[in-house]
Amino acid sequence: MSHAIQERPVSTPKRAGSLSSARLPRWTPAAVAAGSVAAAVGLGLAAGWHSKVQWGIIAALIFVLATYALTTKVEGRRQAKDRVATSLVWVCFVLAVIPLVSLAWVTISKGMEVLDGYFLTHSMNGVLDAEAGGGVYHALLGTIEQVGIATVIAAPIGLLTAVYLVEYGGGRLAQAVTFFVDVMTGIPSIVAGLFILATWNLMLGFGPSGFAGAMALAILMMPVVVRSTEEMLKLVPNELREASLALGIPKWRTILKVVLPTAIGGITTGVMLAVARITGETAPVLLLVFGTKLINPNPFEGAQSSLPLYVYEQYAVGTDAAVARAWAAALVLIAFVMILNLVARGIARWKAPKTGR
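The chain above was modelled as a monomer; its predicted structure follows.
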């Protein structure tokens, strides 16, 4: 007796969170952001708040809360938490960018009023601080020489110190060096200037010069170079060192030909960070270089000027012409650091090992 087998269709339940679940369109974050800004401005005006900072804080809170509520309604609580985390990241990014953009905009708008070829090629010789005219050439020349000398002194010492700590160090000497590097990182610039003033000027009897200021700047630069280079060298895989040593290549040559080229990008970035820090220092220059209105191309004899000191001196005068020169010199200083960073990145990319075939 045969029995017929009756097949029954199997129904698959629809899972929550499948591809067919509801999702917000891609333009939702932009629309919520625009609505949050409009709502914050309306609330601020209604409450009598005229500070744009208050408007920004209110807009950020409304954006996060609205994003969470809307996403919970449409996509669920789990996806809402993810979108809130993303929204917080964007809010923090915007809060960090706004001061930078504002600073750059104010410096460019005010600095371009007197920044021209005459300003870059003339000094303040024969020009009163309260009068219009004059230039920044003597300060720009002093900054280039002082920062260049400081970099020549600090970069090799910092690089070799980092190589010792990573490749050779491991005992008490390495621990002592690491401790003193950490201590030097937090040294105020005025302390470095006083140290050079007490030793180079007072004890050894040398007068004010750009070289004295460069030595103080080198003291400030060295710990930054050591720390950044040390971290970059630690990121180099040990397999590269082991492969080179397995071929019979000496350790010093492995460091020179394998380790350093691999980390050259990070090392260059660390050196540029150190250069950017010392470029804006005023206290060591004020103590050791003194400042002058004349062009002094010799950094080893006589007083010099620098861009930070020039900005300080002109802003302290207080007249419209002096303040305009101060803003223009600040713009030149920012451009100087930016050009150095671009050149350094180009060199690092040129010298970096090629990964393609």
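The chain is about 70% helix and 0% strand.
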